[in-house]
């Protein structure tokens, strides 16, 4: 993983990150000397304490707050805090009167240090329980050997449920029992494309993953997983889910989740996956659970809950919902309950989740909307052949437009135009022929609006809509063929409408340099042949113009001297094609 960081000194990094927590949540305080985040004084309840090495944020310090943790103790990056830090948290930073539950993940250092602190607190007469979470199914029993199962993202289920139950005034006995119940019913597995780089440390060079390789079961501190392989996302998710759910696999079979169970799914970002990509991953997991395992989770959480610094990976956790035996405090209610901790990002309420099945999905909207007929008549065959000629021309010149746009823009202009043209051709195959110009035009507009995106898509769509409006305003009172005069008036008004949304003027090196002379010439001469030649001339003259608008401005470069503006060129060719088609 990249060794680029904004903060390189690991001590400074951990300290400043801890200091940031109270900035974003005024209900918590920071004991920086002991790296403890803890709640300000509040109504008595069982205290929940957790923690571990830094680098897993928002776990655990950003989970401190009403409804979740009472206190969290941080170590240096990937290293357990000391027993003394934890002892201070239990004895001095959280209320002890109703008892304290300590939840840690199953790592040797954490279990030893938190365990020692628990013993010391007990020796002082405090009622303390400890739950150790080992939800990881990434490495099977045989390979895991003595190391045992580690704790990973499924731990947040335990913290959240215990925190919510404690906030409701439950006893330590109940909170501990339910926390253990959740821990026992949770299974997780992670996978990563790369090891993470720890700020301030040298990159380990030898065992870096190769391009296209993913490590299945990798831990949250770069621990080795069970295998490395080249696979795609569906293949990866398939392996991860079968490691988590296959009860026939003697080596793992850590969970006994079946299709009859209520299941909660967490898809967790290990820190370096874009939210966009995590969305795609989540959808893949949900679909495979449904199709391969007949499991439709009753809750789906996706986001960043427990990271491995900026780890380029994700983990899947599954929680089988078990009966807490406490009225009004089911696992789901406790999970859904709001928590005022800055790191808890699951926002959907119980009632929203349970209502989801009640409301029938809104019927798909009819794809084509009713268009008011008009008096503007066209010869449908001529209109079709002119349009066909124009679109063919656009498709033909796509390589040129793309080439120009690669030089002065971001290279997508030609493809965008071509996609629009092809979509209109598709529409023509099925659309009913009509001699009403506005119906014909509206069919085109609907295609342009959905098939062309980006700036040029928007400009074409605005322009064509304004053109339709202008035509309707200039329509005669009885059915008549459209005249060049009506076209010219409508085009003038749509050019004006376009001006409301883009400041582009002739000379700015945009498609306006072709559109403007086209409309002006058509107004003056009423001759489309002359007008399209004027558009062509206008487009050619953009060579050497400096762009003052649009993406070309940022892209810069030298090539603008030699090539016309791609958008103007594309439009001019379209208009030339249109004019040709009308001659036939
Ligand atoms: C934690 O790991 C130890 C070995 O270090 C193992 O014996 C134990 O079963 C594990 N605990 C859990 C809760 O997974």
UniProtKB/TrEMBL annotation:
GO MF terms, alphabetically ordered: ATP binding; glycerone kinase activity; triokinase activity
Parts forming coiled coils: none
Domain DhaK: 9-344
Annotated binding of substrate, by residue: 53-56, 110
Gene3D superfamilies xrefs: 1.25.40.340, Dihydroxyacetone kinase, domain 1, Dihydroxyacetone kinase, domain 2
Biased composition (Polar residues): 364-374
Annotated region (Disordered), positions in chain: 355-374
Keywords: ATP-binding, Glycerol metabolism, Kinase, Nucleotide-binding, Transferase
The protein's annotated pathway: Polyol metabolism; glycerol fermentation; glycerone phosphate from glycerol (oxidative route): step 2/2
Location of the DhaL domain: 381-580
GO biological process per UniProt: anaerobic glycerol catabolic process
Reaction catalyzed: D-glyceraldehyde + ATP = D-glyceraldehyde 3-phosphate + ADP + H(+); dihydroxyacetone + ATP = dihydroxyacetone phosphate + ADP + H(+)
Highest taxon of the lineage: Eukaryota
Active-site residues, Swiss-Prot/TrEMBL: 221 (tele-hemiaminal-histidine intermediate)
GO CC, any one term: cytosol
Job of this protein: Catalyzes both the phosphorylation of dihydroxyacetone and of glyceraldehyde.
Family membership: Belongs to the dihydroxyacetone kinase (DAK) family.
Entry protein name: Dihydroxyacetone kinase
């Amino acid at each position: 993983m990249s060794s680029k960081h904004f903060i390189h000194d690991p001590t400074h990094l951990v300290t400043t990150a801890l200091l940031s927590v109270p900035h974003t949540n005024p209900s918590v305080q920071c004991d920086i000397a002991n790296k403890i985040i803890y709640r300000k004084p509040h109504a008595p309840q069982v205290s929940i304490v957790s923690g571990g090495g830094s680098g897993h944020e928002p776990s655990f310090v950003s989970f401190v707050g009403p409804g979740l943790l009472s206190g969290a103790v941080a170590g240096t990056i990937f290293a357990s805090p000391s027993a003394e830090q934890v002892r201070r948290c239990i004895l001095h930073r959280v209320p002890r009167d109703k008892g304290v539950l300590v939840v840690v993940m199953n790592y040797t250092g954490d279990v030893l240090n938190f365990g020692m602190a628990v013993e010391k607190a007990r020796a002082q007469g405090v009622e303390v329980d400890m739950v150790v979470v080992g939800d990881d199914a990434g490495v099977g029993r045989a390979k895991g050997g003595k190391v045992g199962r580690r704790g990973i993202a499924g731990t947040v289920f335990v913290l959240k449920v215990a925190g919510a139950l404690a906030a409701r005034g439950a006893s330590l006995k109940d909170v501990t029992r339910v926390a253990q119940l959740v821990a026992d019913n949770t299974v997780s597995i992670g996978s990563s494309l790369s090891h993470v780089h720890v700020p301030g440390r040298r990159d380990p060079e030898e065992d870096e993953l190769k391009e296209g390789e993913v490590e299945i079961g990798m831990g949250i501190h770069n621990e080795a997983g069970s295998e490395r392989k080249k696979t795609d996302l569906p293949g990866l998710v398939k392996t991860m889910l079968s490691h988590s759910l296959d009860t026939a696999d003697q080596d793992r079979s850590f969970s006994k989740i079946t299709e009859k169970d209520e299941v909660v799914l967490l898809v967790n970002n290990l820190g370096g996956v874009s939210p966009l990509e995590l969305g795609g991953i989540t959808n893949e997991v949900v679909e495979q659970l449904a199709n391969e395992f007949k499991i439709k989770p009753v809750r789906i959480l996706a986001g960043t809950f427990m990271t491995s610094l900026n780890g380029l990976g994700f983990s899947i956790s599954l929680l089988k919902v078990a009966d807490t035996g406490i009225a009004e405090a089911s696992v789901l209610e406790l999970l859904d309950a709001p928590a005022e901790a800055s790191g808890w990002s699951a926002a959907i309420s119980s009632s929203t989740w349970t209502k989801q099945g009640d409301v029938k999905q809104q019927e798909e909207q009819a794809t084509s909307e009713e268009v008011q007929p008009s008096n503007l008549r066209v010869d449908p065959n001529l209109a079709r052949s002119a349009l066909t000629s124009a679109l063919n021309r656009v498709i033909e010149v796509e390589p040129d437009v793309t080439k120009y746009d690669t030089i002065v823009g971001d290279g997508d202009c030609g493809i965008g135009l071509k996609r629009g043209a092809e979509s209109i051709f598709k529409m023509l195959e099925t659309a009913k022929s009509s001699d009403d110009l506005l119906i014909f035009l509206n069919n085109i507009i609907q295609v342009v609006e959905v098939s062309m995106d980006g700036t040029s898509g928007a400009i074409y769509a605005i322009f064509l809509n304004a053109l339709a409006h202008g035509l309707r305003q200039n329509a005669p009172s009885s059915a008549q063929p459209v005249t060049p005069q009506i076209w010219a008036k409508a085009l003038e008004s749509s050019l004006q409408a376009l001006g409301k949304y883009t400041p582009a003027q002739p000379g700015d090196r945009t498609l306006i340099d072709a559109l403007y002379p086209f409309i002006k010439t058509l107004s003056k001469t009423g001759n489309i042949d002359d007008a399209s030649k004027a558009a062509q001339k206008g487009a050619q003259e953009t060579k050497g113009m400096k762009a003052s608008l649009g993406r070309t401005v940022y892209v810069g470069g030298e090539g603008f001297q030699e090539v016309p503006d791609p958008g103007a060129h594309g439009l001019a060719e379209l208009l030339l094609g249109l004019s040709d088609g009308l001659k036939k």
